[in-house]
Specification:
mainly alpha; 12 helices
C-alpha cells in the first residue's frame, strides 16, 4: 500500500520521533557497561536497541488511541498533536499500527529469547503489558499516579539491566543469571531512569490543569505544581550524584564524571520549568528527552573509551 504524503506525515506524528532517542538511552548505557566489564556481543546489543525503539513507537501509538477512546484527549489538549484525536488517523488505523509494531518488535525479541532464554521472554512480555496498560485496559495506571514509577523501572533497571544481561548470557553460553548483574549496573540504571522519568514529569506538569478537569490523577496532580518542580529537581540531582558515588566508592572508572559537564544545561532546564507554563512547556519536554540521550551518550562514550584504553589491543 502506497501512502499519500498526508498519511506519511500523520504516521510520523503518531510515532513521535522526538521521544525515540530517549528510548535508546538506557540501552546505550547497558551496552557500554557490558563493554567496560569485558562483555562485547554485537548482535544481542543491536537486537536490544531495535526492541527498545519499536516498543517506544508501540507505546506512543497505544497512548494515542487509548487516550482518545477513554475521552482523555479533548479539544483543550496542551501537548503535541495526537493523530487519533485530531482525526488525522482513525482509531482502527492506529490500532493496526500498534499491533504491526509489536509484531516487528517480536522478531529481534525472539532472537534475544534464543540467546538469553526465558528471562528475555519475561522482560519482553512485561514491557508489552506495561505499555498497553499505561493508558489502556481496566486500570490505566498512568492515570493513577503510577506512571512515574513504571517509567523509571522499565527505562532504568529493566532496560539497562536487561541489555547487560542478554549480552552477558550470550557471552557465557547460558550460565549467567540476573543475580550476577553487578551493583554498578543497577546504580547506572537508576541515573538514566531518573532522567527519562523527568520527561513524563514535564508532560504531566504541563497537563495538571486539564488532567484535574478530566479526573486524571497523575503524580503531578497529587503533588501540585511546586511539588512536581521539586520532583524534577531531585531526579536531576540524583542523575549527577550517582556517577559521583560510582567514581568514589566502586570500581567504575571516574570517567563517568564527564557527565558533570551537563550541569549548566540541567540548571537551565530547571529554570525553564519554573518559568514556563502550558503549551510553552512543549519545547522543554523535547529538550528534557534530548538531555537524557546526551547524558547517556557522554556516560557511555566515557566508560567505553577508558575501558578500551586500559585493554591492550593484542
Amino acid at each position: 500500500m502506497v501512502l499519500s504524503p498526508n498519511k506519511k506525515q500523520a504516521w510520523l506524528l503518531a510515532i513521535r520521533p522526538k521521544t525515540l532517542p530517549a528510548a535508546l538511552a538506557s540501552v546505550l548505557i547497558g551496552i557500554a557497561l557490558a563493554f567496560s566489564d569485558g562483555i562485547n556481543r554485537f548482535l544481542p546489543a543491536m537486537a536490544a536497541l531495535l526492541v527498545a525503539l519499536l516498543l517506544q513507537i508501540a507505546s506512543n501509538l497505544a497512548n494515542d488511541v487509548f487516550d482518545y477512546e477513554r475521552g482523555v484527549d479533548r479539544g483543550e489538549r496542551l501537548g503535541p498533536v495526537r493523530v487519533t484525536q485530531s482525526g488525522l488517523l482513525n482509531p482502527a488505523e492506529v490500532r493496526r499500527g500498534l499491533w504491526f509494531t509489536l509484531a516487528l518488535a517480536a522478531l529481534p525479541g525472539l532472537y534475544l529469547i534464543w540467546r538469553a532464554g526465558s528471562v528475555a521472554l519475561w522482560i519482553g512480555l512485561a514491557a508489552i503489558a506495561a505499555l498497553l496498560a499505561y493508558t489502556g485496559g481496566p486500570f490505566p495506571y498512568g492515570s493513577y499516579a503510577l506512571g512515574d514509577l513504571f517509567v523509571f523501572l522499565f527505562f532504568g533497571p529493566v532496560a539497562v539491566g536487561g541489555t547487560y544481561f542478554v549480552q552477558a548470557q550470550a557471552a557465557s553460553g547460558g550460565s549467567f543469571s540476573p543475580a550476577d548483574i553487578p551493583g554498578h549496573v543497577w546504580w547506572s540504571s537508576a541515573a538514566i531512569g531518573f532522567l527519562i522519568t523527568n520527561i513524563l514529569v514535564v508532560n504531566n506538569y504541563r497537563d495538571i490543569p486539564t488532567d484535574r478537569t478530566n479526573g486524571k490523577k497523575t503524580l503531578a496532580v497529587l503533588l501540585g505544581e511546586k511539588g512536581t518542580r521539586i520532583q524534577y529537581l531531585l531526579l536531576l540531582a540524583g542523575s549527577f550524584l550517582i556517577p559521583l558515588y560510582l567514581a568514589l566508592f566502586t570500581a567504575v572508572h571516574p570517567a563517568v564524571l564527564f557527565v558533570w559537564v551537563l550541569l549548566p544545561t540541567a540548571r537551565r532546564l530547571y529554570a525553564d520549568l519554573r518559568r514556563l507554563h502550558g503549551k510553552a512547556l512543549n519545547p522543554l519536554l523535547a529538550r528534557t528527552a534530548a538531555f537524557a540521550f546526551l547524558y547517556a551518550t557522554i556516560y557511555s562514550i566515557s566508560i567505553i573509551s577508558f575501558a578500551y584504553l586500559q585493554t591492550p589491543p593484542f
